[in-house]
Amino acid sequence: MRRPVFAANWKMNNGPSAARAFAAAFAARWTPRDDRTVIFFPPALSVSDVVHALGNRGGLAIGVQNIWTEDKGAFTGENSAPMAKDAGARYVLVGHSERRHVFGETDAETALKCAASVRSGLTPILCVGELLSQREAGETNNVVLKQLRAGLASQSANIVSSMAIAYEPVWAIGTGKTATPQDAAAVHVVIRGALREVAGASAEEIPILYGGSVNGANASALLAAPGVDGLLVGGASLDVESWLTICAG
Ligand code: PGA
Question: Is 44 exposed, middle or buried (0-12, 13-18, 19+ CB in 10 A)?
Answer without folding.
Answer: middle
